[in-house]
Amino acid sequence: MNQKYFTDLLEKSLSGEFLNYDEIIHLYRFADFHELVFYADIIRKKNHPDNIVTYIIDRNINYTNICYSQCKFCNFCRNSNDHDIYILELKDYKSKIDELYLIGGRQILLQGGMNPKLDLEYYQNLFKQLKNYYPDLKLHALGPPEIVFLAKKSKKTIHQVLEILIEAGLDSLPGAGAEILSDRVRNIISPAKCSSAEWLEVMQIAHEIGLTTSATMMFGHIETIEERVEHLLKIRELQNKKPNNSKGFISFTPWPFAKSGTKLVKEYPYIPDVSAIEFLRIISLSRIVLLNIPNIQVSWLTMGAEVASLALHCGANDMSSIMIEENVVSKAGKNFKLDENGMKKAISEAGFIPKRRNQQYEILN
Ligand code: SF4
Questions:
Q1: Which domains are seen in the chain, by residue range?
Q2: DSSP 17
Q3: Which end of the chain is more exposed for a tag (fewer CB within 10 A), N or C?
Q4: What residue ranges line ligand 1, CB within 6 angstroms?
Q5: Which DSSP category does 79 fall into?
Q6: What is the mean pLDDT of each run of 10 residues along the chain (365 residues)?
């Protein structure tokens, strides 16, 4: 493989043609970093010629920390007999959402443990009550593992569960729980969670009924490079099946595993940290491979604002959220903070125009 081989592959992607598995593996393993970044940046400009980088103001609310799944990478979850367990009450939601409204946010990212005591009816009532109190609030809530869990628990189909939750107020479905869409990996890091086929099935049904979703990848643990590439291809393939009138996966966010204190790192102590270069390589490849997903989001929360700003020159066009509350990644050693002014400054200093958006990626005034 010579330099021309890689340039031809990158030109192929730039012309709008999908790269195949072998081509992506070759790029991943051997392509020059600067050339990858160069092409990812041009493809981003082709899709987002206005030089705008978006962000959202929302609040992550974790409704319970009791979770039967006990994923090995999660320091947030608790067993039901632990001393520090909780399930939020309506008054807790109200004070958190009131705070969010004060700074202009209108969306919550509602996630938490798969608590066996919380059934479909619980979420149905919760969504209805929240929409009743805050009619313009957007609920970006749960994720495929929770939908599979609720379907099994309620003996309903995935389709029925999604329809019930949409009717109760669900606006969009986060891509949580994807980690790496390989059952070899999932059986080690999160054996109680839904399988990769189930994760994809939930997303396919969501797209068919017009629910906007997002896709994610948590990398940098026990997965191979081949499994990372397979993950990207599964996401791309599913997005290709979405109906024309559905947005499908509106964004893709790869983030590195935050390992501090996790069971996974105790079991696999030699997992290396993801370097900034490795992270930027993944961002670049995501843009080059996922030509059918409009937004590549960079998670500043796990890498910090400086690396996130660099990622804006490697294909990313969205800086994710001013997260005024975060309880999961911060429990695994990542404590980066960014308010709205810090976000705008980071985007402007990187040479872009910061614009606030909603979950549908519409620019807000
Ligand atoms: S990552 Fe989610 S599903 Fe897994 S243990 Fe933590 S809260 Fe439960």
A1: 3-356 (3.20.20.70)
A2: P
A3: C
A4: 67, 69-71, 74, 76-77, 113-114, 145, 190, 193
A5: -
A6: 89 97 96 96 97 94 95 94 95 95 93 95 97 97 98 97 98 97 98 97 98 98 98 98 97 94 95 95 98 96 90 97 66 68 94 96 91
